[in-house]
Amino acid sequence: MLHGGLFALAMPRGSGKTVLMQMACLWSALSGATEFVCLIASSADRAKDLLENIKVWLETNPLLAEDFPEVTFPIRALERITNRQKGQKHEGTPTRIEWSADKIVLPTIAGSCASGVVISCSGMKGSEIRGQNYARADGKVVRPQLVMVDDPQTTESAWSPSQSQRREAILAGDVLGMAGPGKKISGLMACTVIRPGDMADNILDRDKHPEWQGERTKMVYVFPQDEKLWAKYAEIRGDSLRNGGDGGEATEFYRENREAMDTGAVIAWPQRHNNDELSAIQHAMNLKLRDEAAFFAEYQNEPIIETEGEEMLTPEQIAGKTNGYARSSIPVGCNHLTLFIDVQQKALFWMLCGWEDGFTGYIIDYGTWPDQKRQYFTLRDCRRTLIQAKPGAGLEGAIYNALEKLSDEKLPRVFLREDGLEMRIDRCLIDANWGQSTDVVYQFCRQSQYAGIILPSHGKYVGASSMPFSEYRRKRGDRVGHHWRIPNTTGRRAIRHVLIDTNYWKSFIHARLAVAMGDPGCLSLFGRDEKLHRLLAEHLTAEYRIKTMARDRIVDEWKLKAARPDNHWFDCLVGCAVAVSIAGVSLETLTQRSVKPAKRIKLSELQKQSSAFRPQSSGRKS
User: What CA–CA distance (Å, rounded) separates 192 from 13?
Assistant: First the structure.
């Protein structure tokens, strides 16, 4: 007989916890460990399905028939004709067997440990749980002494705080009170944490529910050490899937580097992986790459805490932040010009920005190469493509040609600031993240006549559970900046490149866009026509941020909206900001400036200074 004790076990999704619960329920009944066991699930229909599996095992499993013939033979004799149960007898004594959708009463057989044992089921509703009892042939009324709770919440209830609280209350009141006044009930709950603060997460917290002894199991107890190889694996796999493949190229890469990629990993179930995967470690990493938040919640039982970030800007708000400057005009305060090129299969997206020393920014120009000759389009419906611009060339050749043509158009150009100063682009970053273009981007940056100012860039998704840039061990020759770093490199791609914490810089850009016009640190758009910037504004609002906490870190994580619109100019704007940060511009210059009252100057004196300055302004601004 079981006496008291409540245990909650969080197991990774797909670990077979439902079968374990069913087998535990069946064992407790057949062995006589309890007189009445209740199986509880998230809903009544789900509970009945679980009980139906137990009924099938009792009817058909030959091993159970061999070990417990006194239970299984009377059940099989019914031949699924429930009307026979009332008249069934053993040696002239009624077996009192019951065989319904929500309750089983095992046959009353003298000498059987399971004689008259009750197995019931119910959903997580108080009305279904309360009042369960059974009058035995010996006159004893029994109530549930053991509850088996299997996945008591649904995805919908987990995301509803009110539903989670209601289910916790049902568990604490109705379920634990099933044994009756003055009696303890034993319980075992198998669950999966879906989100922070849901029912399962709270029950496992001993501070919130000290009556439950909770334990969280994981799919991965220690992750592999070599993050660089796994980052390369993720790049290869993502590139394969985006282009209609099945990720087989990534599996081959893992096969070739498996020893190094497995080093340090500790996995719970080494045999758990799909047929097209080589190991449980690869399977776990694939799940993590597919959806990191779901992986840490449902497979690690360590949900990433997500709360909605600050109010997001609307496309209308962004398109309305025009400054009145003509396209390609440079405001007098600008000391730096940066260009970013985002490489896509059909076209290059580019953006030119001007910056003051305090990170006040101006979007001076942007577009695509080839020029699409229309204000509104998507990458998918581009009519003028890289391949069309270089007939007979392959994809790599078409990309190289496009980078060459766009660079020749922009990088040697002299821009005239409104006070007459001549300026050129200080730094150009080129996206090298897309797997099919990475090598050709590196080749172009190495061979280009503008090699002194261009730099390949790689955006890195640094989430709350990832290692922050500040914790990377700095190696000799590395250059480390504000959430970016330029590692010292050797080998086939012996050219420096910049790694960017995109989550941080996307939040930084939106903060600049939210600054009011005229305030230091504001980011604005050229012209006066808001309609002209409609497509740009959609790119800049194609993602939303979630404030996420994991491993004692709080991070804004940026995700594409469900419709997955284009976000390429958003990436360009981020790249332009990082490029000027590399040049030494930071927000600190705003606070470091000494605030002095402005000296009054006569208009005639200002005109004299301007005319005296103009003839001397020539050459490139350093």
Answer: 7
Arch. (CATH architecture) of 6-217: 3-Layer(aba) Sandwich (3.40)
Q: Outline where 354-474 has alpha helix (H).
A: 386-389, 395-410, 435-447
Beta strands in 173-277 (DSSP E): 186-191, 213-216, 220-222, 266-267
Residues paired with residue 500 on neighbouring β-strands, in sequence order? 459, 484
d(CA 78, CA 225): 59
Confidence class of residue 596 from pLDDT cuts 50, 70 and 90? very low
Closest CA to 484 of 352, 577, 592: 577
Burial classification of residue 470, based on how many CB atoms lie within 10 Å of its CB (0-12 exposed, 13-18 middle, 19 or more buried): exposed
CB 12 within 8 A of CB 217: yes
199-210 average pLDDT score: 88
CATH 3.40.50 in the chain: give the residue spans.
6-217
Beta-bridge partner residues of 267: 220
Residue reference for tokens 């997460």: 201
Q: Is the pLDDT of residue 240 over 60?
A: yes
Q: Residue 124 is encoded by which pair of tokens? A: 């997580």
Which span out of 1-10, 519-528, 597-606 was modeled with the highest average pLDDT? 519-528
CA distances (Å), origin 322, targets 319, 522, 527, 537, 540: 7, 11, 6, 12, 15
The lowest-confidence range among 22-36, 112-126, 306-320 is 306-320
Cα–Cα distance, 441 to 439 (Å, whole number):
5
Q: Is the Cα torsion angle 277, 281, 284, 286 positive or negative in sign?
A: negative
Residue 261 phi/psi, 5-degree rounding, is: -75, -25
What letter represents residue 539's amino acid? H
Which of 90-99, 163-172, 236-245, 526-535 has the least mean pLDDT? Answer: 236-245
**What confidence tier does 56 reach under pLDDT thresholds 50, 70, 90?**
very high
Task: List C-alpha distances in Å: 225 to 137, 198, 283, 552, 580.
Answer: 63, 32, 16, 20, 33
| 562 has a pLDDT exceeding 70 | no
Residue percentage of the chain with pLDDT more than 70: 90
Helix, strand, or coil (residue 451)? coil
Q: What's the rounded Cα separation, in Å, for the pair 578 and 482?
A: 9
